[in-house]
Structure formats: C-alpha cells, structure tokens
Write a structure and sequence with these properties.
Layout (H helix, E strand, L loop, with lengths): L1 E6 L8 H13 L6 E4 L9 H9 L2 E8 L5 E9 L2 E5 L1 H4 L17 H12 L4 E5 L10 H11 L24 E6 L11 H5 L7 H22 L15 H9 L2 E4 H9 L1 H5 L4 E9 L8 H7 L6 E8 L2 H7 L3 E4 L7 H4 L2 H19 L1
Parallel strand pairs: 1-2, 1-9, 5-6, 6-7, 7-8, 9-10, 10-11
Antiparallel strand pairs: 3-4, 4-5
Helix pairs in contact: 1-14, 4-5
C-alpha cells in the first residue's frame, strides 16, 4: 500500500509536518508495512518556507526586521542558489500582534521589504513570496518604502506624487518575482483587500472605508506614473494589497500557492501510483472548493482517491460531490473548540480518524 500525506496546517494547533506525522502514525498502526510519503504543504501562509525547504533544500536565513508595528523581530526566509522563498507572515503577520494591537490603519509591511532587500543583496534572482496571514492593509506601501530605503539613490515616499524615485532602484531590475496565494480578490472595492480582509485584522467599518480609499488613491497615482494599472488583477488584494504592490511595481507573476508548491515537488508524478491521498485543513466546507489547499491536491490527484480530514466539517455532501472520496471530521461531536485546538488532542484525533479509515478500508 502506498499513501501520500499532504495535510495543511491546522491554524493555531498543528503544523503541516505535525499533522502528516499524526496521520502516518494512524495508518501504520493498522498497516505497518505501508509506504507513506509525507509532503509538507502550504498555500502561501503559515509553513510556506518550511514546505519549500523540504521540497528543494537550501538554507534558512535569519535576520532582524520590523514587525507590523515597527518593533524588532527575527524573521526567516529560504535561500537556495539564486532562488529565495519568503513568507510575509514572518515579518508582517497577524500572529505577531495581540488582539488588542491589531490596527490595519497603522500596521505596515515594511519588514517584508527588508526581507526582500536582504535576499537581493545575497544574490537572489528569483524571489517567491507567500502572501498569507498578514496583519496589514497598506497596499504594500510599507514594503516599497523599505526597498527604497535600502536601494534608492534619491529616497522618498512611494505613496507621494513623485514616483520617479522608484526608477532609481536598479538592484531589482533583474530580479523575477512570483507571488503565491489562494486569494483572487482585487485591491479595491467591495471584494477588495479592505472590505473583505481588514475586519479580521482589527478594522472598524469606518477604517475599512478609509483603507479602501487610501488604496484606491495609491493605485491611481501609481497607474499615472507607470501607464498601467494592476489594482483589479486577481490576487491584487492578497495580504492587504501586497499582491498589488508586487504586481504593479515588480511585475510579479501570480500563482496559486498550492499549485506552485505541488509543481515544484512533482506531486502528480509522486502520487500517480498511490492507493490514496490524505489531505486536510482546520475547517472544511464549500469554501474549500474555492482554490484552497485541499482542492489543489484534488485537482492534481488524477484518478487516485483523496481523503479529506478537518477539525470542523460543513457541507459534506458538496465536498463529496466535488470529488473527495471521504470527508472526515477528526473531532467527536460536541468537542469544545478550546479542547479541539490543543495540540495533543488534535494529534490524537487525527490518529484515531486514520485508524478508523484504514479499518473500514481493510
């Protein structure tokens, strides 16, 4: 028996590696001779650099940067030859702030720009950026300011009317950028970064309107300077508008985070002779089908059955109709959320869920 494990992190509970390990333990307790291949996965958020590190190797670089409130924090990114992989949550992530500190009116993506600058100085020519878990909604202005502070010959404010300063940033001209996300939202409007994502980052309704207007003005100024506008491109609204800044200013390619990772590891080829695949996420419902990680796994599974496990499951029939062979909630009915989020509980429940699946298969 050959089994592929590619389970997303259970946010605030288990990493992808830990979830895969628990599933493997459950399978081996029933089928000790099973060939199990564990693939750490991420769609651009938590665990993105670890997933790529497992896939391509390289070294993890640590550096001191600024967090969303411009406080010192240590961040990591992956460097392999001339390729760098950056997880923006390392410097600009929501998890770096307490609930009381969340305020997207002041949170900045400056630290992400510092990571990009460091990677460029170390010789990176292709930078892959995972856009997940951000605390910011600054349309990438903070990130651009950091790059200008590091590289521009005539420093200035990228949000101002004189954007000619950007033309001085020669170091970035030969660097190719790929941004990875599962978000297809534009920068502005009712489906944009502020309206859809800023409330979970601490924005009040009034703040949402102000953030949207701020992003719109920045996009208008940028479009007049460059002669093109990418604010409505799919993914421009990712990470509070960082997607827009990378596309508008760095001509970045936009790709599905999970598809980019699966292509990198050669997932289709690895899985083609598997008996089944196990994927999962913290909460599975009809939104899973809208480009989230398990759907990316399903799309590359070919004819191999895919089991979906999750800490919470809704719309089971919809998920089964989409093509998942099984859809299993790891938590018994009535489990309190506080208990379900405990690491040991989640690991134990994943083990039990896979044991049950294997016994039924047997």
């Amino acid at each position: 028996m050959k089994v592929i494990l590619a389970i997303d992190s259970f946010k605030g509970c288990l990493t992808s590696v830990e979830a895969n390990q628990a599933a493997a333990e459950g399978i081996r307790s029933i089928f000790p001779d099973a060939e199990i291949i564990e693939i750490p996965v991420s769609d651009g958020g938590e665990g993105f650099i670890d997933a790529f590190h497992a896939a391509i190797g390289g070294k993890l670089v640590e550096l001191a940067v600024k967090d969303p409130l411009m406080r010192p924090v240590t961040a990591r990114y992956l460097l392999k030859g001339e390729t760098a992989v950056i997880e923006i949550a390392q410097a600009s992530g929501l998890t770096l702030l307490t609930k009381e500190e969340r305020n997207p009116m002041v949170a900045t993506s400056y630290g992400t720009g510092q990571m990009v600058a460091d990677a460029v100085r170390r010789g990176a020519k292709h930078i892959i950026v995972g856009l997940g878990g951000s605390a910011t909604s600054d349309a990438g202005i903070g990130m651009l300011r950091a790059l200008i502070d590091n590289f521009a010959r005539h420093p200035g404010n990228p949000a101002g009317k004189s954007l000619g300063i950007w033309d001085d940033v020669e170091e970035l001209r030969d660097v190719r950028f790929t941004i990875a996300s599962d978000v297809n939202n534009p920068l502005c409007g009712m489906q944009g970064a502020a309206h859809v994502f800023a409330p979970q980052k601490g924005a009040t309704p009034e703040m949402v309107s102000q953030l949207d207007e701020r992003a719109r003005k920045f996009a208008d100024i940028s479009a007049r300077h460059f002669g093109f506008d990418r604010s409505q491109n799919p993914g421009a609204g990712a990470a509070g508008g960082l997607g827009y800044a990378f596309m508008q200013y760095m001509d970045a390619d936009y790709k599905s985070g999970i598809q980019l990772l699966l292509d990198t590891v050669g997932f289709s080829n690895i899985a083609k002779d598997a008996d089944f695949i196990v994927t999962g996420e913290g909460s599975a419902d009809r939104q899973t089908l809208m480009g989230k990680l398990p759907m990316g796994i399903l799309e590359q599974s070919g004819t191999v059955p895919v089991y979906l496990i999750a800490g919470r499951v809704n719309d089971r029939d919809v998920l089964l109709q989409a093509g998942f062979e099984r859809v299993e909630c790891i938590n018994p009915p009535g489990t309190p959320l506080e208990e379900a989020l405990q690491k040991e509980v989640a690991q134990r429940n994943i083990i039990k869920t896979l044991q049950t699946c294997m016994l039924q298969q047997d």
